[in-house]
Specification:
Number of domains: 2
Shape: globular
Distance between the termini: 57 Å
Helix content: 55-70%
CATH topology of the largest domain: Rna Polymerase Sigma Factor, Chain: A
Order of helices and strands: HHHHHHH
Number of strands: 0
Radius of gyration: 18 Å
Number of helices: 7
Structural class: mainly alpha
CATH class of the largest domain: Mainly Alpha
């Protein structure tokens, strides 16, 4: 690895858990699944992290690993689908008034999950993690131009979805 003190596993988890979890949540929309993906990324780090030559790239490595695990889980889910939330909507408890202030963020995240899969991850990494195009390109394994076009398409899709929500409200 690089010169200098290598951070411990606990320090790496402490530094990157929140960002990874938020990214996973933006991809999955489910807290439990986001937690599982985040734990899986750190589990893989524990097994293979020593192979990383430049410790400065640990963040990109973790985000890339989490994204690959997400894609793999989606392939598994397509073979073994889960129950859609709409089919059990009457079993969901009502929204407490204290959470109303957080509704806008929840609405945007819900709409983000409706954006095309190809655009969803770059958009989430750009807005939720504030990553530059180059780092997003490294994480997703695509050219920077592809990241830029996917973010542009994703923004347009997200704006249209949010306008549809606003129009339905009026």
């Amino acid at each position: 690895m690089d010169s200098g003190k290598q951070p411990s596993f606990e320090e790496i988890v402490e530094s990157h858990y929140r960002g990874l979890y938020q990214f996973a949540l933006s991809l999955t929309g489910a807290e439990a699944e986001a937690g599982d993906l985040t734990q899986q990324a750190f589990f893989i780090w524990a097994k293979k992290g020593n192979q990383l030559r430049e410790i400065s790239k640990v963040k990109s490595w973790l985000f890339t690993t989490l994204h690959r695990e997400f894609l793999q889980s989606r392939r598994r889910q397509s073979r073994f689908p889960h129950v859609e939330i709409e089919s059990v909507a009457n079993e969901i408890p009502p929204l407490p008034p204290a959470l109303v202030n957080e509704l806008d963020g929840a609405t945007v995240l819900a709409k983000l999950r409706q954006v095309d899969d190809l655009c969803q991850a770059p958009l989430a990494l750009f807005y939720l993690e504030d990553l530059p195009y180059k780092e997003i390109a490294e994480i997703l394994g695509v050219p920077v131009g592809t990241v830029q076009s996917r973010i542009a398409r994703g923004k347009a899709q997200l704006a249209a979805l949010l306008q549809t929500k606003e129009a339905g409200r009026g």
